[in-house]
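Quick one, T. Sequence first:
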Amino acid sequence: MPASQIDGIPRAFATAVSQLNPRQESYVPELTALILTQARRYRASDVHLNPCETELQMQWRIDGVLCSVMGFDRELSSRITARLKVISGLLTYRTDVPQEGRVAREHSSSEVRVTTFPSLYGEKVAIRLFAEQDQLQMLDQLGLPGMVEVGLRTHLEATSGVILLTGPSGSGKTTTAYACLRDVRDRSSGTRCLMTLEDPIESAIAGVIQSQVKPAAGFSLTTGLRSLMRQDPDVILVGEIRDPETAEAAFQAALTGHLVVTTFHAGSAVEALTRLMEMQLEPYLIRSALRAVFCQRLLRRSCVSCSSKSLESAKSRNSADKNPAHASLSALCPVCSGTGYAGRLVLAELLEPEHPELVQGLLSRADARRMSALAEATGMVTLSQVAANAVAEGQTTQEEVLRVLGGRRS
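Structure tokens:
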């Protein structure tokens, strides 16, 4: 996005920083706390602290898009990083290896994950700010398309099979997976045993037995899943299928009478099927165990405040031609800080592979193009079709659809 559109956020943050006294010993702790609180205030999901030759650059990911917020003096780089390590329980003296931790509760009221990574000019720090505990808890809070939500709930009532939650990184798969667990927990009233294997555990869920794998100790997703099945679970969440061994173990677990919910990196529901076959899973195993493939994307939602003032916006654009600097300051929306977007919208598709045409395509190892045609012929509403409806209803823009979906075939 143009720099002028997000100018309000860096300016507001710089104003907040100017209230701190750099001569005080508490300056770095206060600055670090300010970064966390201000980033959450402006709805950032991630904070990037990038060490460069002359400064420490800070970027925030807001509604899925990175924007530059501020550059700190090079001398502050190691001090800010050290402070984040202290409040996250990391080793301050290890700067040569990646580390990962969570900010202690006394320093943040909500879940915050900190990871460090060595680079040419120092350690890069990535901070993930998870949603507040009262947000995005249940399926009906995610804003899924109506029929997709109904279909997903129906499959969650099953006693066996695999439900794949797919999409690229940052598309909200884990949030949806946790919402699925809460939905099963509440609807079963405690009569089903729910267990997870995760890497890492991102949020604690009451009523669910959660485990974090430790590959260095031999406790991997694959070995953990085989042992977990002897704990008499009804529903198993596997944090992510990353390799053929985990994929086969998850599908075998489903065949032995367990409902398995898992995430999987794939660009579409159909692509998930072809990727499973590329992992050497036999088509008959996929056909026997797979219940549904859910795929989602997050798009920035058009700012309602900006949309309701289209006339004023048009006037601002006209004045920008005469005085761009003045327009960039006066046209900033207090809701979206001038980006034109506020919040995010979920696009989702649900593929149910029990249709005879899809089964035949799967067993014959049809390619992705053929499987896509078969899926649409069975009535699946694709991500592109959902996106087109969202644009027509004014929920988002065609530019945002192209940014997220690219030239995806409908």
